[in-house]
Amino acid sequence: MACISSFNIIKDRFTVFLEENGHRKTPERYAILEQIYKSEEHLNVDTLFSKMIEENYRVSRATLYNTLDILIESRLVRRHQFGDNVAYYEKSFFDGKHDHIIMTDTGEVLEFSDPMVQEIKKTIEEVFDVSIDTHSLYFYATKNEKSDNE
């Protein structure tokens, strides 16, 4: 997880967002935020639900979905769809922009960042006279099998 002082900044930003948008500040919402920021992986609702139970938080799936929607709206969490029908979530504050390679044979998700992607983004903005707020780039891949000569 982010260090304590970094997490306090994230928590404060969430508090301000909740207040400005008329949402209740519940312990469950803060616990969900903390669980996501403790994780180093992409979480789906089932995994997040299990982790909350392990931490002795009794939250319903409806609370998870509602809180995730609020966290996405506050830009503290990102939602991804990696080619299946399951949504995955990850922290986004203090977490640099990155893209994904989804291994279709193993289900593994690899993250990478390449300055060329930023250059492509800038070119698109210039050519189409737009400002890109966010982007998602997914590559779907399988591991190359080694030949007998290697």
Automatic annotation (TrEMBL):
Chief site of localization: cytoplasm
InterPro entries registered for this protein in UniProt: FUR, Fur_C, WH-like_DNA-bd_sf, WH_DNA-bd_sf
SUPFAM superfamilies: Winged helix' DNA-binding domain
GO annotations of cellular component type: cytosol
A Pfam family of this chain: FUR
Keywords of the record: Cytoplasm, DNA-binding, Iron, Metal-binding, Repressor, Transcription, Transcription regulation, Zinc
Cofactor(s) required, per the database record: Mn(2+); Fe(2+)
Keyword Transcription: yes
Quaternary structure and interacting proteins, as annotated: Homodimer.
Family statement drawn from the similarity comment of this UniProt entry: Belongs to the Fur family.
Record-given protein name: Ferric uptake regulation protein
Taxonomic source organism: Nonlabens xylanidelens
